[in-house]
Amino acid sequence: MTEFVKLDSFDRKLIARARANNLEPARVTAEAVGLSESAVLRRMRRLRAEGVIVRDVALVDPGRIAPHMTVHVLVRIPSRDRAATKAFKAAMQASPEVQGAWDVTGEWDYLLNVAVPTMAAYEAFCDRELGETSGIEDFQSMITIREVVAFDPSKASLAD
Q1: Which range, of 89-98, 103-112, 125-134, 145-154, averages the lowest pLDDT?
Q2: Gap between the Cα atoms of 77 and 91, Å rounded
Q3: In the prediction, which pLDDT does 154 show?
Q4: Domain 1-59, what fold?
Q5: What is the pLDDT of residue 63?
Q6: By the 8 A CB rule, do 129 and 78 touch?
Q7: How far apart are CA 152 and CA 149, in angstroms?
Q8: What is the pLDDT of residues 14-56, one digit of tens each?
Q9: In a 10 Å sphere around its CB, with 0-12 CB exposed, 13-18 middle and 19+ buried, how is residue 106 labelled?
Q10: CATH of 62-143, one of 3.30.830.10, 3.40.720.10, 3.30.70.920, 3.40.1180.10
Q11: Which band of pLDDT confidence, cut at 50, 70 and 90, is reported for residue 160?
Q12: In terms of Cα–Cα distance, which of 43, 72, 61, 52 is closest to 140?
């Protein structure tokens, strides 16, 4: 069972600022949240040590680097066989094209977020990961035309 970390109002303010810009200098954060610089650094170290902040990453716009397509894929597995499910999850974790995967409710079993440079690359992904030998019953692809709301992890609310 997950052990939840107790957060006070300062912790929440620090997390919100780190989620928006994790490169903000501690002195700027300290001034903004009403703590000393050393208190900010100490609290941020604690939040990392307790696993509240799991990693610091840079969000990159792939469209600025090379052409790419985002495809959302709904996947159905024929049964809830543990071995088949485990193999599918492992394959998706190992696939560089899969940017996210979720176990979902309803008619489909999984939702994938797949990023590829071309339709030919997507076809190769489908043949390799979702083809006849993959154990997949069916899948449906939805190709993104344009992004309406950008993915922004800082928007996710934190439980009170």
Answers
A1: 145-154
A2: 13
A3: 72
A4: Arc Repressor Mutant, subunit A (1.10.10)
A5: 75
A6: no
A7: 8
A8: 999 998 899 999 999 999 999 999 999 999 999 999 999 998 8
A9: exposed
A10: 3.30.70.920
A11: low
A12: 72
Instruction: Kindly list the domain boundaries of the chain, sorted by start residue.
Output: 1-59, 62-143
Lookup result for tokens 């604690």: 46
What number of H helices and E strands is found in the chain? 5, 4
Q: Do the Cβ atoms of 113 and 100 come closer than 8 Å?
A: yes
What is the average pLDDT score of the chain? 90
Q: How far is CA 25 from the centre of its chain?
A: 25
Q: Cα–Cα distances in Å, from 41 out to 22, 28, 104?
A: 12, 12, 38
**Would you state the structure tokens that stand for residue 28, as one six-digit string?**
């700027």
Beta strands in the chain (DSSP E): 69-76, 98-103, 110-116, 138-143
CA dist., res. 10 & res. 34, Å (int): 8
